[in-house]
User: Which sequence fits this backbone?
């Protein structure tokens, strides 16, 4: 594998944004995701390859480490920041259609709930794994999810909630989405959510960590 | 023993007779008195009424005055979005929106909603002098996150000094808040810092430990007790949390209770938790609540354990579920019942009870834990024992003590949920309450009557009049009807004039009379030849 791609993957895994970034200490003074992505493109590496063999590789490692409690939210956010810095260079190739995404994932924190840390983490991870993410924000009502899935055919829907009192809205939203688009797949997650709850409300997937969702999506492309 | 005393004992890791129980009633108090979350959290009177109602309903040993991690943030300029069924949410973060620490100040005791809770604390203190009042303060890391927004996570790496300054400021606020709450009468200060569940142990020790330790030390100096509440996946930090020297750590269902127990006791502090908030308390039923509470009680043990929900009770938690926990906590006999059931339920076969109660006698089943060791069970068995002989052999009674496996199977086959229960011919008749003699007799008599009626019905017969001549048939019919009336029998009479049909009964020439007895003899089984012969003799 291209040495540059391996380095890019490392930058994502360890959250090295650019050369000036002090974090992580062991990579101080080295080029970050920003510089290395530019270099790779300049050397003629295909954008698709940078995404698949560089960024996604790093992101997957972070996802696994997060699941295994080896890193926590702050580290994941650093990785995501490195990722989005790299993505700026790739943006034109997405727009031109040269880089293909696996599918579309619609995500939002459910009605009544304004918490977005979990939702943002998931959307970063999913995006970092080659999906187009449509982020509806927080306090999202059933109609908004329905409108979004009608607009993005074959998209997967993800519902996030932090509050025990708002997670119950997931049931209503799941029903509305499935009524509007029979066969639509709905994934749920958030601190109070469990797989038992997922079964109870008739949603399709639950994962206690973002990587689990990524795996579910990838398995259902 | 009074609640506060009991909690002090548990905090001191002395063995207790009964595990102390602290329902974390926040806006749920509003639900109990029928007001929305916003009205509730803004009113001293409502808080006092809600907490009083909770104390009345849930018989706790300790209770929080309020559960609101936005109170300090609101005073510091975070915008709140209020909700009807939830505590408010912080929607703006001053330090991420141009403000600096120099623009913020440490709240004095008359700012924001501080007087609302300190006054509520004073009134509750007076009203319930023996109950432990928990004063909750927002933990410094969670408060810092309110002030900085999620930027704080990246600044841990990119601008650690800035984070430290904000943490220090939030610690000063925590110290002040605990001072106000202690002065107002709180016994236990809980530092609630759920956001620490999102960071790793090294980050925790670097950015959280020095600050919260200062708050816990200060509370100890004031000779009050302290607790460290986290919710969420904070398993990685439990040890670090204990090292901050609180008197207690309290956790939710995301962390196994035995894991916390092991670490906390090793570190010499008490621990609490972790009733499951959503699946059980909010969405489950009373049985689920009892089962979960028992699991906590059994895991927690009677040294250093405080039974509590994992976190703030969802507003609309059904009170019946919390009451079920209350009952269980205060009644070791109920704990035995749930324990026995749970042990056995997983391996249950259920009997087919379709034909139960069809025998001639009336069967009375008493389902007990064990009438020898359980007083209510004993009285219920005695009630039946006294009444049965009066029916002179018509009533048969049995005790099923669920300490035996087949009794448990029998119990679930009859769908009995409570102990003790009396079933009459397989139907649940009396649950938990010992019936007065008259009622029990009446219930059994009713069943006897029902059976008698059924029997009479099942003996219903038919008489067929077969003949070509309708006039002759009418004449015979009139005679038969008269006979039926005189004998008081319930017999149906049919007239058949069709030749082929007559022939089917072996009648060549009318008139003829055939009696038919339609008593059901067997169902779903092949009777033996001897049995069939007996039936034929009856005809």
Assistant:
């Amino acid at each position: 594998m291209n040495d540059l791609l391996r380095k890019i993957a490392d930058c994502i895994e360890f959250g090295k944004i650019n050369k000036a970034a002090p974090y992580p200490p062991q990579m101080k003074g080295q080029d970050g995701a920003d510089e290395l992505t530019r270099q790779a493109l300049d050397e003629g590496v295909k954008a698709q390859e940078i995404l698949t063999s560089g960024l996604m590789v790093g992101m997957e490692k972070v996802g696994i480490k997060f699941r295994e409690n080896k890193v926590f939210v702050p580290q994941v956010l650093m990785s995501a920041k490195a990722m989005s810095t790299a993505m700026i260079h790739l943006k034109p190739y997405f727009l031109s259609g040269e880089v293909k995404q696996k599918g579309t994932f619609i995500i939002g924190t459910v009605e009544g709930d304004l918490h977005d840390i979990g939702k943002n983490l998931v959307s970063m991870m999913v995006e970092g794994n080659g999906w187009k993410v449509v982020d509806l924000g927080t306090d999202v009502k059933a109609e908004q999810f329905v409108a979004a899935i009608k607009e993005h055919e074959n998209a997967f829907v993800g519902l996030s909630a932090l509050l025990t009192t708002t997670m119950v809205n997931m049931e209503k939203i799941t029903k509305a989405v499935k009524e509007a688009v029979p066969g639509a797949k709905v994934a749920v997650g958030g601190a109070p959510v469990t797989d038992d709850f997922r079964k109870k409300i008739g949603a399709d997937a639950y994962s206690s960590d973002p990587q689990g969702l990524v795996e579910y999506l990838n398995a259902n492309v | 023993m009074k609640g506060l005393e009991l909690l002090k004992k548990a905090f001191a890791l002395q063995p207790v007779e009964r595990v102390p129980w602290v329902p974390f009633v926040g806006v749920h108090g509003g639900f109990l008195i029928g007001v929305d979350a916003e009205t509730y959290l803004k009113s001293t009177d409502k808080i006092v009424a809600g907490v009083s109602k909770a104390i009345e309903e849930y018989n706790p040993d300790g209770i929080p005055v309020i559960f609101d991690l936005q109170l300090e943030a609101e005073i510091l300029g975070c915008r709140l979005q209020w909700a009807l069924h939830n505590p408010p949410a912080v929607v703006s973060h001053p330090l991420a929106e141009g403000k600096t620490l120099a623009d913020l100040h440490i709240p004095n005791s008359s700012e924001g909603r501080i007087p609302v809770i300190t006054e509520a604390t004073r009134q509750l203190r007076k009203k319930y002098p023996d109950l432990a009042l928990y004063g909750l303060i927002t933990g410094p890391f969670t408060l810092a996150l309110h002030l900085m927004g999620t930027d704080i996570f990246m600044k841990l790496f990119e601008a650690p000094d800035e984070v430290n300054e904000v943490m220090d400021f939030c610690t000063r606020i925590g110290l002040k808040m605990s001072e106000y709450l202690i002065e107002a009468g709180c016994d236990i200060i809980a530092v609630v810092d759920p956001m620490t569940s999102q960071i790793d142990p090294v980050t925790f020790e670097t950015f959280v430990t020095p600050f919260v330790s200062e708050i816990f030390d200060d509370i100890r100096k004031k000779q009050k007790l302290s607790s460290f509440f986290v919710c969420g996946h904070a398993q990685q930090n439990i040890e670090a949390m204990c090292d901050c020297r609180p008197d207690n750590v309290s956790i939710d269902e995301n962390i196994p209770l035995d894991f916390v127990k092991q670490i906390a006791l090793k570190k010499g502090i008490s621990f609490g938790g972790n009733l499951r908030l959503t699946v059980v308390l909010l969405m489950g039923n009373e049985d689920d609540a009892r089962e979960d509470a028992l699991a906590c009680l059994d895991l927690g043990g009677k040294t250093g354990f405080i039974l509590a929900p994992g976190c703030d009770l969802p507003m609309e938690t059904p009170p019946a579920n919390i009451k079920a926990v209350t009952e269980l906590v205060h009644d070791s006999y109920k704990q035995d019942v749930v324990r026995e059931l749970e042990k056995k339920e997983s391996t249950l076969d259920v009997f087919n009870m379709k034909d139960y109660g069809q025998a001639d006698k009336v069967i009375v089943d008493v389902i007990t834990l064990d009438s020898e060791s359980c007083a209510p069970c004993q009285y219920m068995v005695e009630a039946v024992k006294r009444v049965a002989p009066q029916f002179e052999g018509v009533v048969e009674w049995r005790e099923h003590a669920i300490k035996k496996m087949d009794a448990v199977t029998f119990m679930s086959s009859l769908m009995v949920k409570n102990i003790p229960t009396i079933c009459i011919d397989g139907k649940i008749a009396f649950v938990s309450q010992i019936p007065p003699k008259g009622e029990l007799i009446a219930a059994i008599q009713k069943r006897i009557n029902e059976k008698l009626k059924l029997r009479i019905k099942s003996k219903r017969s038919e008489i067929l009049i077969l003949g070509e001549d309708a006039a002759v048939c009418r004449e015979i019919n009139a005679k038969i009807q008269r006979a039926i009336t005189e004998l008081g029998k319930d017999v149906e009479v049919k007239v058949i004039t069709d030749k082929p049909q007559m022939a089917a009964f072996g009648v060549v020439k009318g008139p003829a009379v055939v009696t038919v007895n339609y008593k059901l003899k067997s169902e779903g089984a092949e009777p033996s030849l001897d049995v069939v012969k007996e039936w034929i003799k009856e005809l």
